[in-house]
Specification:
The protein is α/β, with parallel strands linked by helices. Helices cover 47% and strands 25% of the residues.
Length: 140
């Protein structure tokens, strides 16, 4: 993935939060569908152990008109990704819109983690973090 969030407990121990993002420009997405990287990337996201997987697609489908993949095939790939692979597809218009989206997710995660009524255990049970520290995550 391209984006992964970390959380810290009161002792400064790092935790991998349960959200990961794979970001693609629409032209790169079309190319990755054609050369097979799209399926490999979805496979790796599913094997990451992170439950909240987001495929962030940047740009308009109409801007991929030079591609040999039709707009209907791209829409079908999005539907398949969401339904069969259980990966959320988030579409943005451009880089600035993607940054805004990622900043919004970050603010929401910070808000959740700073809530005094939410303990580390609550976050772990609700899918907010993977129950391992960063070193353990990197070892897997």
């Amino acid at each position: 993935g391209d984006v992964l969030w970390l959380g810290y407990d009161a002792n400064g121990r790092e935790y991998v939060l349960d959200f990961i993002v794979e970001r693609k420009r629409i032209d790169d997405l079309c190319q990755s569908i054609m050369d097979g990287r799209y399926y490999e990337q979805k496979f790796r996201l599913n094997k990451s152990g992170v439950r909240n997987q987001i495929y962030l697609v940047e740009g308009k489908i109409t801007s991929a008109y030079k591609s040999t993949i039709s707009p209907d095939a791209i829409e079908s790939a999005f539907a398949s990704t969401q339904i069969q692979d259980d990966i959320m597809v988030q579409r943005t218009t451009d880089t600035d819109n993607s940054i805004t989206y990622l900043a919004t997710v970050t603010k929401r995660l910070i808000s959740i983690c700073k809530n005094p009524s939410i303990t580390k255990q609550n976050i772990l049970l609700s899918g907010g973090a993977i129950e391992c520290d960063l070193d353990q995550f990197n070892d897997n």
